[in-house]
Amino acid sequence: MKFSKKIIDWYSVNKRSLPWRETKNPYYIWLSEIILQQTQVKQGLPYYEAFVANYPTIFQLAEANESEVLKLWQGLGYYSRARNLHASAKYVTNILNGVFPDNYKDLLNLKGVGDYTASAIASICFNEATAVVDGNVYRVLSRYFGIETPINSSKGTKEFKLLAQELIDKKKPAEFNQAIMEFGAIQCKPQNPDCHVCPFTKGCIAFNKNKIADFPVKLKSAKAKKKYFNFVVFISNDNKTILEKREGKGIWQNLYQFPLIETNKEINYEAFKNLVENHKLIQKQPFELSLYNEEVIIHKLSHQHLYTKFWIVSLESKITGAIPIEEITDYAVPIVIGNFLESFNF
DNA sequence: AAATCGGGGGA
DNA sequence: TCCCCAGATTT
Q1: What is the helix, strand, coil percentage profile of chain A, to 5?
Q2: Ranges for the HhH-GPD domain (predicted)?
Q3: Residue scoring higher pLDDT (A180 or A280)
Q4: Does the CB of A192 sit below 7 A from strand B?
Q5: Which residues are CB-neighbours of A68 under 8 A, at least 6 positions away?
């Protein structure tokens, strides 16, 4: 039996029931695909429900403010996805007159839509036979065909896309693409795949060489760098605080944070007190300094480990430009700050 | 080609 | 600890 038929048969029996499988509306499929980039279904599901509820159509998403979209995205990470989602909604609404792109090539013009997402939308919504290659597909194909080319090399990218494109059922591209991803997600898993009930073991090179755990091959990535973040939580005598918008390049772009003082190593109470005395919002007026977390919080991102301290600075005066404490929850903040807000008693 | 961009969860 | 997740974009 052909690979494509076998995987589609498996899918018809084993597929999970998921909300985005009940529609072919390109807006909903696009939304789900962006949310699910580098994100497990379990983590992305509540966000999908929230976005559909808040923005039932792409026009409503286009009319929203970016700050509102980021607030809804808060906690999901990779925030450029949210910014690009919003920008593309405006693009489709205002430039394309509300007509969603209906083919692979045009879909690539949407910000945040690359080869994978364009292939997914084109196949699922418009029956275009273009193969998806996500983390699941890399794993399934590398194991079954015993391919040792690193999946995160440019050679690997081309090789796996070409192979997937040869395998795809050109009459059922939507089913094939979703089938191979679902198979990778719930059966041909990274750890402890369910080979004992797998219909592909007879032809699976990795299985027959007893080398399942050796696939896929991947180049090592650089180790995370350590950074030392000191958030300054001002509290004025009228119960207000300072939040700043993160501008520029790095992480958490356009999200809000307490004023940040980054140091090149962990800093103790006395040293930080000297530092903060010169802060523009202090100006030598009396203040009380306390450290919220005696144990440094290590917030781990893919490429950075943030050694984080929250310093509470209480003032006996008002602060210009400050916001009332109770309004903080209106702002999109990184989850490390969101966690602080939930546990700190202002 | 390599680095960057989050956060959660599993072993 | 390290690795992975319905990847895309920038450097």
Answers
A1: 45, 15, 40
A2: 35-186
A3: A180
A4: yes
A5: none
Given a cut of 90, is residue A122 above it in pLDDT? yes
Could you tell me the domains of chain A?
Answer: 3-214 (1.10.340.30), 225-343 (3.90.79.10)
A246: which nucleotide lies closest, measuring CA to C1'? B5
- Residues A130/A122, Cβ–Cβ less than 8 Å: yes
**Residues A195-206: tens digit of each pLDDT:** 999 999 999 999
Instruction: Give the rounded distance of the alpha carbon of A258 from its chain centre.
Output: 23
Which residues in chain A, range 322-341, keep a C-beta under 7 Å from any nucleic strand B atom?
Answer: 334-336
The C-alpha angle with vertex A156 and arms to A150 and A159, in degrees rounded to 5, equals 140
Beta strands, E only, chain A: 225-235, 240-241, 244-245, 256-257, 260-263, 287-291, 297-300, 304-315, 323-324
Work out the mean pLDDT of chain A and round it to a whole number.
96
Task: Identify residue A8 by its one-letter amino acid code.
Answer: I
Instruction: Clarify whether A33 is annotated catalytic.
Output: yes
DSSP summary character for residue A99: -
Q: Please report which helix (H) or strand (E) contains residue A82, including its range.
A: helix A80-90
- In single-letter form, the type of residue at position A328 comes to I
Does residue A284 carry a pLDDT above 80? no
Protein CB footprint (7 Å) on chain C nucleotides: 2-9, 11
Does the CA dihedral A79-A82-A88-A90 come out positive or negative? negative
DSSP letters for A116-147:
HHHHHHHHHHH--------HHHHHHHHHHHT-
Predicted confidence (pLDDT) per residue in A223-276, tens digit: 899 999 999 999 999 999 999 999 989 999 999 999 999 999 999 999 999 999
- In chain A, what is the straight-line distance between the N-terminal and C-terminal CA atoms, in Å? 65
- Best CA proximity match to A173, nearest among A121, A102, A105: A121
Q: What was the pLDDT predicted at A282?
A: 81
